[in-house]
Write a structure and sequence with these properties.
The protein is mainly α. The chain has helices at 31-58, 65-86, 89-94, 100-113, 123-151, 154-158, 163-178, 182-190, 194-222, 233-242, 248-259, 271-280, 282-291. The two termini are 31 Å apart.
Length: 292
Amino acid sequence: MSNTQARVPLKARKVSFSWDGTPLHWVPEDPFTTHTINVLHLLLPAGERWFVHVYKQALPHIRDERLREDVIGFIGQEAMHSQAHDEVLPHLREQGLDPTPYTAQVDWFFEKLLGDRTLPPGRPRRWWLMERVALIAAIEHYTAFLGNWVLNAEELDRRGADPTMLDLLRWHGAEEVEHRSVAFELFMHVDGSYRRRVRTWATAFTALVFLWQRGTRFFMENDPTLVDGRARLKDLYVRGRQGLLPTTGDMLRSIPRYLSRDYHPSQEGDTEQAVAYLAASPAATAAEKRAA
């Protein structure tokens, strides 16, 4: 696979999706896989709004015009991702699964715990900005990992997963692969401290694992069609072996790659594959036609 990234401007594709025909368990007869992936709809709207907010604060610190253009393109794509996943939530409510108790916790996490703080100008304020820029770089390592995974998750197709949901996930995943270098390059440009990279990776990884397992458990326990819905670690391992979710081994092997001193996100995923999917995605091609 090719890891070369052609320098083309990043653009936000104004996609839209209709959820009328999408069942609650969009992976047929597999609520666990469905709800494990559904956590994306709970985490991403607040998380990507936070990305945009932080990066707007980082723009004045960028001294490289090409990087500035990439960051502006990144902001546009992330804002669109947030909107697209947010629009799934009313569909879940219509099917009897109200995500509000969980999304309220996620909103608090990004808006309060990781939000702006009343700090004096100068070094304290810059320190908090650099911490958050580094956190985003670590999180984007995993969004690129997941984007690459879903582009190649052929087992979801074989199991009859809902095509609209797959298009949302693969459109998003392809854009994550497309812009996978931006967050890391911004961090290296404005700071680049290896100690900060390691420290914020540990924070991001711990938070993602905690929020994801909590979200899966929330979905399984509140699914109106399940009598005794549980989210077990064994199910995660089994679905990984089946190709329905990322494998535990692949997730663990992603850790030393990010922590390597010579790491660069171009090592992750395949730009050509991502661009090819975006050229074929029903939602992305429809957005192109509307724009034209």
